[in-house]
Amino acid sequence: MEKNVREMIEITEEDYKKFLMKNEFVTIGGVKIKLEKNWNIKTFSPPSDYKLENTTVWSFPDRGSWATHKGNYRGNWSPYIPRNLMLKYSNKGDWVLDQMMGSGTTLVEAKLLERNAIGVDVNYEAVMLARNRLDFYYNPLLPEYKEPIIKTFWGDARKLDKIKNESIDLILTHPPYANIITYSKKKNMIGDLSYLSFNDYLKGMKDVAQESFRVLKPGKICAILIGDTRKFKHYVPIAFRVLQVFLDVGFILQEDIIKLQWNMKATREKWRGRKYDFYLISHEHIFVFRKPIDDKDFRKYKFSVKWWENNVI
Ligand SMILES: C[S@@+](CC[C@H](N)C(=O)[O-])C[C@H]1O[C@@H](n2cnc3c(N)ncnc32)[C@H](O)[C@@H]1O
Questions:
Q1: Mind listing the pLDDT tens digit for each residue in 12-68?
Q2: By the 8 A CB rule, do 224 and 216 touch?
Q3: Cα torsion at 221, 242, 160, 217 (round to 10°)?
Q4: 305 alpha carbon to ligand 1 midpoint, in Å?
């Protein structure tokens, strides 16, 4: 692990309120984003005709704009993704972790779905933006409703030092796709995986995978959204390299969900209307990993993929 890894520092409600008194905006990766003082929320849930996903191909052309969700953090994931995964793989009161939370989409869903949550980001201003997105009153007036605990930290996904071993019920996270989109300016880049060379990025992702494995309870799920790119017209399989890293630390692959991509700057807008001799990339992968319950569980999995035995495991 790189020596210069930031320790987790909790960013409390009080820290956020002080920040909000002095700042009207945050600037992340050169993009200025307004901090809302009073959210005008029209609805707390997806459209009533929306049905949860039940196949391995997902597509959300409208992204989702309920509660405080806005598509204005570059590379944020559609709230439909954490919503689907949280409802399938966790229960009310469980602890959900997003250790690269960006604008806090996962945490907003956790608040709405009554899951406790921990959010971490290496970019201090992203943590403040996430807190801003969580700064709304929600009480569905149901007798069984219990307000969840949501904690935010400024920290590094490669070193989750404030999170105990096997204390998390579900990990949902969305790492940078190597350096396709950068999330900070050079001066505060310490630890930002989106600033690294591809090899260093993969080393960093190995630390992320190991930490994910450590903090997750046995038998529980860790899901990541990850995509690929092109360099010099060639396809760079970032997702499959990251998949391998997660398998190498001991995770079992439970699902590979293809997520169709809409409004992707690098593939659709930039090249639209011009002719190229390659296809525009318009999918990403949601890899759903399971931490084995014990060695017996892992061995059972190994037998089910015998053809891997001599190569990977
Ligand atoms: C793809 S964005 C996540 C977007 C998020 N899902 C959302 O909906 O807003 C990736 C995030 O990873 C953060 N990041 C990069 N390197 C990190 C690291 N070492 N530890 C924690 N966060 C990191 C970036 O600051 C960025 O906010």
A1: 999 999 999 999 999 988 889 999 999 999 999 999 999 999 999 999 999 999 999
A2: no
A3: 20
A4: 33
116: Cβ–Cβ under 8 A, 6 or more apart, which residues?
A: 93, 94, 95, 96, 110, 148, 149, 150
What phi and psi, each to the nearest 5 degrees, are found at residue 121? -150, 145
| Test site for ligand 1: of 63, 98, 122, 124, most ligand atoms within 8 A of the Cβ | 122
Q: What is the mean pLDDT of residues 292-307?
A: 77
CA 309 to centroid of ligand 1, rounded, Å: 34
At 204-256, the pLDDT tens digits run: 999 999 999 999 999 999 999 999 998 888 899 999 999 999 999 999 999 99
Q: How far is the CA of 204 from the centre of ligand 1 (A)?
A: 13
Show the ligand 1 pocket: residues with CB < 6 angstroms.
73, 75-77, 99-103, 105, 120-123, 126, 156-158, 174-176, 183, 191-194
Q: How far is the CA of 232 from the centre of ligand 1 (A)?
A: 26
CATH class belonging to 9-308: alpha beta
| Beta bridge partner(s), residue 58 | 259
Q: Long-range contacts of range 201-205, CB-CB < 8 Å, 24 or more positions apart?
A: 201/176, 202/241, 202/242, 202/245, 203/2, 204/2, 204/158, 205/175, 205/242, 205/245
Digit-coded pLDDT (tens) for 90-136:
999 999 999 999 999 999 999 999 999 999 999 999 999 999 999 99
Long-range pairs for 63-69: beta carbons < 8 A, 24 or more residues apart: 63/262, 66/41, 66/42, 67/41, 67/43, 67/108, 67/112, 67/136, 67/138, 68/36, 68/39, 68/41, 68/108, 68/132, 68/133, 68/134, 68/135, 68/136, 69/105, 69/108, 69/133
Q: Where are the domains of the chain?
A: 9-308
